[in-house]
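Practice record 12: protein with (2S,3S)-3-hydroxy-2-methylbutanoyl-COA.
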Amino acid sequence: MSDPAAIVRSERQGAVCVLTLDNPPVNAMSHALRAALKAGLDSALADPEVAAVVIIGAGRSFIAGADIGEFGKPRAAPLTPALIATIEQAQKPVVAAMHGNALGGGLELAMGCHLRLAAPQTRFGQPEVKIGLLPGAGGTQRLPRLVGLDLALEMITGGEPIDAEKALASGLIDEIVAGDLRAGAIATALRAAAGKQLRRVRDLAAPVPPDPEYFARYRAQLAKRKRGLMAPDVCVTAVAATSLPFDEGLAREQALFAEAVASDQSKALRYFFFAERDANKIPGIPSETKPRDISTAAVIGAGTMGGGIAMCFANIGVPVILVEANEEALQRGIGVVRRHYEASAKRGGMTPADIERRMALIKGTTSYDALAEADLVIEAVFEDMALKKEIFATLDRVAKPDAILATNTSYLDTNAIAAATRRPENVVGLHFFSPANVMRLVEVVRGARTQPGIVAASMALARKIRKIPVLVGVCDGFVGNRMLSARGREAERLLLEGAAPQEVDRALTDFGFPMGPFAMGDLAGLDVGYRARRQRGLDWPIADAIVEAGRLGQKSGAGWYRYETGSRTPLPDPATDAIIATVAQRLGATRRPVDREEILARLLYPMINEGARILEEGIALRPGDIDVVWVYGYGWPSYRGGPMFYADQIGLAAIRDQLASFARRFDEKALEPAPLLRRLAETGGSFASLQARE
Ligand code: T1G
């Protein structure tokens, strides 16, 4: 237990006691902090010389909420509601002085205070829903009383913070202190002490819904926007309890909170909260390594990927040189980028001035000479090894000595590409996902010779363009596509055995994926996968037959599904069933109904098995990294944690046994349980045990 006096410093400023919270890095309300704050409050409120109390945070935050790491463990008193009760029973004013982040239990504590002051840049939020919870210290009862139902519901069901201006305008806070926050709070506390009435939020009138259907309507909208997530609806139930007397509403919230903490969804989302942060930590590269500055970027190839990547830099104000083989292709690429921005402006996402500002940052050229000034060059041409080697040999000649040379290949050997230069230590893979200006994941591919500084710079750069970087090693398909390929192989086999494309897709969308493999193939274009399989000598007889029948997906009006003109809605197509039946007959496959559970196991377990091999080979540093790749790159539902977390929920022994039976049934070596999976299953271990936090 850390020193209470250090974690909460109590200082007297005249008749005001200032309690400073100091639990770096974000003043999470750990048990130690709660206990020390309670002690500080009790002594200040009992001290006759103290007329008022100020609670303020040290470091970069007021309070970022409850300590998420403590959930799932026995809860030790005092809990936050007890701290708030102490404040609400006080006869002296208690003032919250906020800066940085005032989130979750931190904002709830502040709403338990008599007055709330904040520095101009402060952000206020109830992000509990993002970890499958709801405010559990009175936020669902006090926030609506302060800001009304609409804003309270938006903040609690969405989890996004609001800024100080909006907080002041909505009544959440009483004052913005532009100068010295501590001094401002002390002055306000003294004024309040001189005042008659202490204002408690719990005593404010509860807002009345505009009509009896208000909450039902809100739930219906949420159900569409938050498909599969349970917490948003539970949040509405809690806020609706504001129709009860305050303490009954509070008890309702507490009961719902206790249920939510124990839910599988919250366990998965809490796991994912830390997995996402762990993915930033690269052993051997100090987290405070100062990233090199990228003042000019360059992208080679103005196709779908190249254009999207260039937008990522223009979006954050970094000039980017866009290189194409000829003027016509260049203008076509730049035209696509402008249309993306115009579409976003139509949706109100930016102004015409924004469009022009970003377009002005994208300089098109057909000459490599312009690359001499670039700090970073990203090659994004189509997947052809010879072409990529040629480009890197040219870059080796024209790029400045310390430039980062990156390839966006999604599966080719990054080491072979690096070997085309005399500076492989400066070569790295930056694998973006389509559409690159939207998808948040970037697989940062560390080659055998890539130097640590380039790895650190690439991770930091990806965060700078608002991406989620995950470090991976070099292998065919890196982490994401390698596991996707294992799933795709099984999807093909399931069709042979009797499942229909829509049944396979339905099993995954019911599981929580936005789309199944066949609808996704039709969206991406089936010829892309066909070419990649040809290059790797892979035979997927049904998938190949579909393409050879001229069915390329949405772009040709038919693929696995058929599409009405102008529609993207996948419609089952008897023509596809006929192709599948013909291939199955040719291969002598016995067809039978395949139920949803089997489809799910057949698709997900081989992926998990490939994940275990990826960990064994060190291609991924931690199971959590694999989960971050799948949630941000492939639509794995975050409320299921990711494939490796999910495996632990199912139980590794069960997965081992199922895989072993699949391997026997299909005589398929790739389905043999990976040694790591076997070992963990035999020792009762879990992938989570490999994720130990520093
Ligand atoms: N608990 C434990 N650790 C936390 C934490 C928290 N609430 N917030 C941050 N950390 C750690 C994080 O793991 C990382 O550690 C370091 O702090 C820096 O974080 C009763 C039930 C505040 C906006 O959901 O959104 O209150 O990895 O890298 O980008 O109703 O952290 O370095 O070892 O994210 O500057 C509600 C969660 C809790 C807020 C800062 N609160 N935190 O972002 O830094 S539930 C939240 C954030 C609750 C009550 C309920 C962000 C941030 P490490 P970081 P950042």
